Amino acid sequence: MTAFPYTIQNRDLILDNPSGQYVLRVRDLAQEDKPRERLVKDGPAALSSNELLAVLLVTGTTKEGILQMTSRIIAEYGEKSIFARTDAKTLSSDLDIPLTKAAQIVVAGELGRRFYQRSGSGAIIRAAADVFAYVADMRSLTKEHMRGIYLNTHYQVVHDEVISIGTVDANIVHPREVFKPALQYSAAGVVLVHNHPSGVVTPSAMDLVITSQLKEAGRIFGIDLIDHVIVTADGFSSIIAG
To answer: How far apart are CA 136 and CA 128, in angstroms?
Structure first.
C-alpha cells in the first residue's frame, strides 16, 4: 500500500489527502516523529496531549489509527473531561472506543488523582472566575458536558468528575450522580459547571430547574451546592453566586 503524504503542524497530523479513506498509522511516521520515541528522547513535556494519549493507548482500531483516535477524543471531549471519568463502560460508549482502551484511560486518571491528592496541591476555587480558569478545556467543546468539582472546607479541589455528556436535562442529571463522589471523597461542597456550545452564556430555564433541585438535594445530603457555572468560549455566568 502506498501511504498518503502527511505533514505535522503543531504536532498535529495533517493528511494531504483528506478523503478519510486512508488510516494513518504510527508506523507511517518517520522514526523521529513517533510519539514513544519522542517521549524517550525529549521527555513528556515535549509531546502534545494527543501524543501522550497515543503512547498510553498504544494502538488504534481497524477503522481509526491511534493518532486519529486521540486527536478526535481530545478535540471532542477535552483533556480534563476525559481523565475525570471513572466508569470505563460509559466512557467506552461515549468515546466510541474499545472497553480495554477506556479502562486504560480510567486507570491513568485515577493514578493521577491519587498522586495529586497526596501532594496536597489541589487548586483553590473561591469564585466563578476561578471555575472558568480551571475548566479552560471545556470552553471549546462541541458537546455539552456537566462536571462536578468537589471541594474541601478550604475550597481546595479534592476531586473532579464528568457527570454527564449531552444535553443537560433534569431527567438525566440525577442527584445521586452528583453527590455520590462528594461522599466518596469527603467533600464539603460541590461546584457544578457545564458548557454551552452555542456560545449563549445565559442559563436556560432547565439550568435553573436543575440547580434548584440539586440545591435542595444537597441540603438533604448535608453537602453544599456552592455554585452552578455556565461556561462558553468567551465567558461565564454564575447561577447561584450571581
So the answer is: 12
Number of H helices, E strands in the chain: 9, 7
**In angstroms, rounded to a whole number, what is the distance separating the alpha carbons of residues 188 and 184?**
11
Question: Does the pLDDT value for residue 39 go beyond 70?
Answer: yes
Span 195-224, pLDDT tens digits: 999 999 999 999 999 999 999 999 999 999
What is the residue-wise DSSP string for 115-183? HHHHHT-PPB--SHHHHHHHTGGGTT-SS-EEEEEEE-TTSBEEEEEEEEESS--TTTS-HHHHHHHHH
Q: How far apart are CA 41 and CA 196, in angstroms?
A: 40
Q: Residue 109 is placed in which grid cell?
A: 486518571
Place of cell 452552578: 228
Map out the domains of the chain with their CATH numbers: 6-116 (no CATH), 128-238 (3.40.140.10)
Q: What proportion of the chain, given as a percentage, has pLDDT over 70? A: 82
List, edge to edge, every strand of the sheet that includes 145-151: 157-165, 145-151, 189-195, 224-231, 236-238
- pLDDT-based confidence at residue 170 (cuts at 50, 70, 90): low
**Cα–Cα distance for residue pair 78/223, rounded to 1 Å:** 28
Q: Which residues pair with 7 in a beta bridge?
A: 14
CA 242 to CA 228: how far, in whole Å? 10
Question: Which backbone phi and psi does 166 adopt, to 5 degrees?
Answer: 120, 180
Grid cell at residue 117: 491528592
